[in-house]
Amino acid sequence: MPNMSLNKVVMPEQDPKVRARNFEEVTLGYTADMAVEEAERCLNCKNMPCVNGCPVGVRIPEFIAKVKERDFAGAYEIIKSTNGLPAVCGRVCPQENQCEGKCVRGIKGEPVGIGRLERFVADYVMNGEAVPAKKPASNGKKVAVIGAGPAGLTCAGDLARLGYQVTIFEAFHVAGGVLMYGIPEFRLPKAIVQKEVNALKELGVEIMTNMVIGKVLSIDDIIDMGYEAAFIGSGAGLPNFMGIEGESLIGVCSANEYLTRINLMKGYLDDYATPVIKSKSVAVVGGGNVAMDAARSAMRMGAEHVYIVYRRSEEELPARKEEVHHAKEEGIEFMLLNNPVKINGDENGRVCSMQCIKMELGEPDESGRRRPQEVPGSEFDLEVDTVIMSIGTSPNPLIRRTTNGIEANKRGCLIVNEDMMTTRDGIYAGGDAVTGAATVILAMGAGKTAAASIDKYISSK
Amino acid sequence: MFKIVTKRALNDSVILMSVDAPFIAKKAQPGQFIIFRIDEKGERVPLTIADYDREKGTVTIIFQVAGKSTEQLSKLNEGDSILDFVGPLGVPTHVEEDAKSVCVIGGGVGCAIAYPQAKALHGRGIDTTVIAGFRSKDIVILEDEFRAASNELIITTDDGSYGKSGFVTTALEELITSGKKFDEVIAIGPVPMMKFVCSVTKKYDIKTTVSLNPIMIDGTGMCGGCRVTVGGETKYACVDGPDFDGHQVNFDELMKRNSTYREQEHACRMMAQAK
């Protein structure tokens, strides 16, 4: 008999008051018993709607069946066969819009906690005895991957499992991309990311850090070095600003800068040298996951007030519901239906307040969301000393500016066909470099598709 | 890991190092920069490339001890290694093909960056004048190198203890008023110096390129920390620069933004000295 409880087995969490001031992981994960109890809620539907909701096609009912049997290693093997980064996805995927959004149990009550189960299985296996990586026989063919973020890591892993000799060129000093510089420790511990990276190395993937492709080597250089194909997963790094008055004041930064200082450079730890701006009162502009990460980080850095300033209403917030919920629990103040007009500075050029205007929702726009419009005469000053802009990013221009034959659209996103091949033969691309800022799992899906296409391309040469 | 091949003190606080970095040495051009991270806990610090040797595979940096990271770097010796060394970043300096006469101005440790510019221009057969400004005689650097890389070298010191007394701007204006024609001026040094050079050249309508040194983390266009206002538009020094048209740069804003972490840097220095 399945477990017919309408609710997911509750996952233990740190107390909101405590965790709002530390960088340790917020959610603590299931125990084996909790995982088995939750797995019992799966009805093992024949048509597997959950699998259709997964960008990398994890065979969900199969792995959950193994959890029910307490065969956690077996469950891990099933997940790992299509998903290179299960410990990451179990934590940061927007499951409510994907697998769990399609779960039959969600029609009445909560869906099966697929993400939580995936995380449990990955953690259980990775914390235990090391799973010996089966290094496949090399086929002697070399493929280059540019960028060690979710798209690149996935593409590299899939190709390595097929026997390719893969080199990843990473611009930063450490592999992981947004998993290292963007998503905070309290949501995705960096040790977990590095375990996944090490697993790839065991598969034979070579990772060269400190290599900014487009500068130190061009795509042409790479092809000349004997790589038969290349995958570009360089991400969407360039932060957008609003273009309002006062954005150059001291105390205004992009969410990328703020989070990079804290996550990648570990500025929150006293013995690391990178400084982080000290704030009493912070406005984070934007309503996505990155905005939530920045706001919750600011709280942990010791701010007294942290505001999310977002021009639409709660319903339109692009962030995952769980992140919004956690942010509220931690004391983040949501100033919805407000838009910044300008940032005011003191005589030293430091931020002292941000002028906002109240908004209301009008008719739906082309995105289908109701268009926010200003309420005339409703301007007011919000007293803050720091403004963090989190209103999206654009693809990094370095590669497209320095590579012939690769075309991009007006927004700077690389153009690819259904096989993820760019306008240049043998050069593939995927992830945010193609779509503009999106999610970890969509980037992984793109890396996966590209790996299959690259295999087909090289095999048929 | 990137090995330090040579180390030489140019004065009490300015050090030259050449570092084994063959990939970078192969592609580096004047005006570009590298970012180093000394160890696991270090910052990412940008430094302009002072020279490179494509055959030996080395890149030369010249730096002044100014904060925790440069202090740490100064303590390393030949044979030691730097954990991370990435580049060449930024857009190389562009001087018009038909330029016949160029004035390169360096201020203090900025001379380290002015030097490869002078060397490249002089190597192209362009009439190259160098004005190198220092606070006083004891911190003069690269005099012989500049002499070999210029048609005329003027050294100025603020206190008159060596060369010509006064600021680089005075020397520049004297050259111009005495009839010297420059197609372009390249100015590299402290922000106030670049600002004042630009106000002189603007008066005489001479194209002026400056090399900016804003706050930066990644150097690839990702953090936005290095944004500067040029001609009313926001530009990123790491991918659009670090060279810009000096007549368009908002120097006052840059000076303010560069002070963002000053208190914390100061605290770091105090702690380093106390140790």
Description:
The complex is a heterodimer of chains A (461) and B (275). By secondary structure, chain A is α/β, with parallel strands linked by helices. Helix content of chain A is 33%, strand content 16%. Chain A has helices at 16-19, 32-39, 49-52, 60-68, 72-80, 86-92, 114-127, 150-161, 178-181, 190-202, 219-224, 255-264, 289-300, 321-329, 398-402, 432-435, 440-459; strands at 142-146, 165-169, 206-208, 229-232, 238-239, 252-254, 281-285, 305-310, 333-336, 338-345, 351-364, 370-374, 380-382, 386-389, 393-394, 427-429. In chain A, the strands form four sheets. Chain A has a five-stranded parallel sheet with strand order 3-2-1-4-16. Chain A has a five-stranded parallel sheet with strand order 6-14-7-8-9. In chain A, strands 10, 11, 12 and 13 form a four-stranded antiparallel sheet that branches. In chain A, strand 8, helix 14 (321-329) and strand 9 form a beta-alpha-beta unit. The model of chain A has no long low-confidence stretch (mean pLDDT 93). In chain B, helix 3 (111-123) links the parallel strand 8 and strand 9 (127-134). Chain B is 29% helix and 32% strand. Chain B has 275 residues and is α/β, with parallel strands linked by helices. Chain B has nine helices and 16 strands. In chain B, strands 6-1-2-5-4-3-7 form a seven-stranded antiparallel sheet. In chain B, strands 11-10-9-8-12-13-16 form a seven-stranded mixed sheet, sandwiched between helices. Chain B starts with a strand and ends with a helix. Chain B has two domains: 2-89, Elongation Factor Tu (Ef-tu), domain 3, CATH 2.40.30.10; 101-211, 3-Layer(aba) Sandwich (Rossmann fold), CATH 3.40.50. The longest helix of chain B is centred in the middle third of the chain and has 13 residues, at 111-123. The radius of gyration of chain B is 18 Å and the shape is globular. The A-B interface holds A 171-173, 181, 209-212, 215-217, 237-239, 241, 243, 247-251, 253-254, 256-257, 260-261, 265-266, 271-275, 277-278, 348-349, 396-398 and B 23-24, 27, 37, 41-44, 68-69, 83-89, 217-225, 227, 229, 234, 236, 239, 250, 253, 256-257, 259-261, 264-265, 268.
